[in-house]
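Slide 14.
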Amino acid sequence: MTVVTTAGIQGYIFGSNKLRENIGASELVLRSTTTWAFQTLADLQETFNIVSLTLTSENNDKEHRFANWAYQSTGRIEEGDYSAEVIYAGGGNTLLLFRDDPDCQRAKNFVYQLSLQMLEHAPGLDLYAAHQPFGNWHEVNLPQLIDQAIKKLAEIRSARPTATPLLGLSITAACTSTGLPANTTHDTLGDDGDEDKAGTLADLVSNQVAAKWKASKWAKERLRTEFPAVPAKGFDWSDDLDKLGKLPGRDESYVAVVHADGNGMGRRFLALGKLFAESYPDRPRAYIHAVRSLSISVRETALAALKKMVCTLLAELLYQDQRPEPDRQQLYPVDNGRRLFPFRPIVFGGDDVAFVCSGAWGLSVAHSYLQALESGVLLPDLDTLLAGLSAAERQKAVNSLGVNVDIFQHSEKRKPFACAGIAIVKSHYPFFQAYHVAEELAKSAKQRVHALIPTKTASAIDWHFTSTGLHGSLKEIRQREYTALERDEQVSQLLNERRRYNLIARPLMLNSAYTWRHWDRFVQEWRRLEPDKDDRHNKLIALREALRAGPSGVRQFEAVQREAMRLPVKEDFPPAISGPLAEGKVAFDWQDGWVTLAKMPDTSSNKLKLQLDEIRSPLFDPIEVEDQFLQFTNHEDAQTQIAHCLETEPTAEEES
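Slide 15: predicted structure.
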């Protein structure tokens, strides 16, 4: 058995400030453990269980043969149908079995040939592999074997010394993107070159950058296949952050960098591995079926959600274009007469998704993706995953899974939940740092979900907006920039400290059952704070500064602006109906710009800390993103247009 993985993926993909290089790097990571791995097996004349779905005209082109692929529905390696079998592939990892290879020579040759392929086509991307021989198929504990191989892989990675790239020597020209020695120029990259840079110092690039530029063309072809409605409706995909961020009528260019990650997906795979390792150690085929079925389902549901989100955005853009003046809004960038789609995926095809879009679309697009994920196809139940076991064995498995059985059986918990982090920054902001913040925000959203629902069966969203820079960790930034302190006797008696008034309500849950801090509340407050008068912006700025001054500042603001701007009332914040806040019978109140506790429940210090975290303002979030929040109108034809979009097939021209 062989496990192959790539390393240093984040730095490889997001280390450049050029979107085209980010996109190309992501495509290279994807191909390294799928397309090229399969092509290597074919070159070695191994028979294996992957079928190419690529067009016949391109089937002999190694760059495209396995660009679209699927698992064979029939055939088993243990019955002699294949000499090699891919258990699962994707996300920078591939797990394979080789038949009649006790000394792992064929497996090692496979890794050797794949390494040569990557050295040529993906320089700078590290590949690691570990081999684990095994004997009789019917006696192998496959989950345990995989675990041993993964541990061996971790040891190999940790033992490798830090790579020190060989620098210039006789070459003195530096790549303008990486600082490494320049090996080529943009004007020698053929159709992938940059005409604006030809003949300039910015024209010099390293082999690594040249490979990413070439791969970005493959990535664009994949977009045309997966999202054919976008070009069909006259939109082009942009690979330039500055162009992507320039919406008409806006003075500055902002982009939203989004990272979304599935909730509890690892728990599902671990639960299956433990089940088979302990209860069915001699059923490797049933285990392969289970993990492969779950892997396919995760990939398909995530891709379906992304497609629905793209179609939702496309329907909104077309709707706005058709509206009569003066209601019409142009909500997408235009470059030399070309309509640019204000969204560009970077990493997709699994539960881990990364994309960029025009800054003002960031929140709505991320929310739309999470919503589409939740409302999509449920993850497979136990009967589907354990189809390789008898009915009696499946019933036994229900008992063996214990507390984990619900995530496979309960329909609500089989939803593919996820959390998203959005960093809204200027288009020239260092991309790697923006993505790192988006990751931190996604983790923050996950922590919020875990605090309210330990099973993580819910989705949440968090974001950060900056017009300048980011200094310190997310926690430090929020303590420094989003808190107001004011003496409160009740809290002082309990905790011996001043009450910390948190200016922001985020991270926000998508479901309103667990807390008042949810997405619909944010949208409602954003709409509520929109006065009818022309001086809307000035009033919002005044309220923002009043919030920074604490409750006393809001009281002064209300005394002056009571008629001009309606603030919330207590009835807008009903008690939670599920989760620890509901169990603790926590009642909320509204007081001077903040949601407070109507009563302090008798409970443990940990839960008290959680409940006090509810003392936040619902007003600052919508004020801060006043000009960076475009919404979907959900017009009457939206669902019909989305359905038609999802049914669009690639044209022959787009596929070629």
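Speaker note: The CA atoms of residues 144 and 529 lie 57 Å apart.
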